[in-house]
Amino acid sequence: LRLVVLISGGGSNLRALLEASEDAEFPARVVAIGADRDADGLAHAEEFGIPSFVVPFGAYPDREAWGGALLEQVRQWDADLVILSGFMRLLPPAFVHALRPNLLNTHPAYLPEFPGAHAVRDALAAGATQTGASVIVVDDGVDTGPIVVRERVPIQPDDTEGVLHDRIKHVERELLVQVVLDIANGAVDLAALR
Ligand code: GRF
Q: Which positions are annotated as binding (6R)-10-formyltetrahydrofolate (predicted)?
């Protein structure tokens, strides 16, 4: 399975996929890594010798133009699956429609709970005793697509946002690697999800 992973930040979930693909048995390879900015996580591409590309959001007149340029880059890699992993930009409909359903996103909450860019902070602010991690098929909404898998993560009373986010990320990575395995071996059919 040829994967293109898109990031905006540290790329710790990306790193988990890169480490998994070190195992010759793992049925997927990250063939390219993309970002909307000069993301710290691009260092993982360097370290693992994976081609990378940056399509800076600010370099385009609008979201549609940026999305078109990003899609053009992604398309060059003949990906079977594009994974948004800590990618913090909303993609224009044309990008989503071109790749759906082979476009996944990881989210640090138990969707549909706490969608959006501040899921971890929102769970804490809500006084929740548990949250979660989810992998979904990206649709036109914000974190509204079909859920591929999700798992509960406990919240401890003295959790800070950082501590809770790290606990969630550990689960996110496991889910992401498992979803890639399940898609590669046919256990999950993204086209069948609703
Ligand atoms: C992840 O929790 C992701 O779900 C969220 O932001 C975090 C990015 O972490 N959107 P990283 O860049 O993979 O370390």
A: 63, 88-91, 105
